[in-house]
Amino acid sequence: MVDPFGVLGLIGTIDTTYHWGKELVALCKASANAEARLHESVVRVEACWLKIQIQLEFVRRLEPQLSEWHKNIQQQTLEVLLHKLQAANTKLSGLVKKSNALPNDAGEEIIIVEVKRPKYAFVKESLMEAITDLEVWQGIFDPSWFLMMKIAGPEVDQQLYFMSQQQSVSTHKGTKAAIPAAQHLRLALKPVDDDSTKKTVYLLPDGLITESVQPLPYSPVRIARRATTGQLVVLDPITCTSRASINSALRDIRNFARRLQQTDPFTFGLLQCKGILSEEDSNDTDVKIRNVAPASLSFVFRMPPTHSYVQSLRHRLLSGPSGEHSSLTARFDLARQLVKAVSYVHLYEFVHKNIRPETILILSNGSHVSIDAGGDEKAGAYSETAVLVGFDVLRDAEGKTHRLGDDDWEKNLYRHPHRQGKTPETDYNMRHDIYSVGVCLLEVGLWESFIEYDNVNAKEQEALKQISLETTNLRLSSLVKDRLLQLARGVLRRKMGIKYSKVVETCLTCLDPNNEDFGDEKEFQDMDGVAEGVRYIEKVVQRLGEISV
Question: What SUPFAM superfamilies does the database record attribute to this sequence (predicted)?
Fold first, then answer.
């Protein structure tokens, strides 16, 4: 059977999406007019849809510039949205009684509906389901949309400017969020004079309250407060064991800090970087820039003021079944946030090289859901987001690394067998990050920590169940990978379902020559470096996002 959306093409699919989106918003507004208690939920639906509208218009304008791969992933994602919009419209229409549409002062038809009191709870539930569907879909769509910022040529900048001018009169927060974030990303990806970054991203030690600096349990980072504002920051220590050239390493460190100065942690899963802190005694900033060693530097990341509670994923995993992510829904949310954050690290043209539960932080607002007299959830409910830190061995995605490593077992567990030990076999690339993501997704799905700590936080060298091997030997490290795959195909599948386990398996085998999704390296050689990002979004981000819980 021919897919009707495929026949439409990308532009036709966008037009059809507009139609169903407008229908849903109109129906939601009519429901709110009939029942005041639905107003807050309808505002959230409208905000989601307004942002989507802007993003779809941007796709329409740039459609001629998109590669076939990029067009395909956009259309596939839109088809998911279309099905969700149609289902939401059908379900909501069946719960309300429509009257004849009446024109308003502008001549537009306004739908009039009646929400019968016995059905109020079902209408409320349908609206909340629509909100969840739109927000989850947004998380699937955003990575491929922001990937357009890597397209070379002036057309992207021209359309960003044009649409920002169009939206300048809008007062709705949701309608303005996408374009400014895209403009900041586009600017961050532009090359700059390295001398200018030396002057703008280095910070002095006296900018922190010394007494406030404290380690975060089960993580390499520390938490501190700024002296001037008292704002919480994360100090992420930098080491570059894989870099032989200090100057090259410092250049990449400065460039990474500059690129993350305007990032949004709730969109990108990356904290805003205030700058680089040097903890050497010298007060001469110029001397520090010329002579500082990476080991004495830390990234200074801003904590969002609304989410000041922080834990590492390792801390959560060690809490066992009683942890906040013991439910299926919470685990899927965390998994989706993690895979998106990794896609944005690569979008910023860097590889992480150190993805593991210790370098994944979970930020929360510390609130809890409250219920009003009508039995509805009130604003200010508990929320959290996962962000990546631990950028201690990062390099730009196109740069070369000297093959220097370590024998740290608990780190090797998250490394592909070809990247373990003191002399890894191959150069690092984005797919090595994807492998690490697979190991983390396996832990999240099982909700068990592969690394154990005793009561005094000394690391034990027993991590993976039934395996205790020295992983400096390729044959033995491959056995660990085989064991991980065995868990993914067995216990994980029973706990999280076939689709989730397939995503984990795809990540763990992404460097295998017979992997259908990532095995052919020639497919990822394109001018803008978009192809590998598109494939990761299609095979990991999108597939994980489409799973219903």
Answer: Protein kinase-like (PK-like)
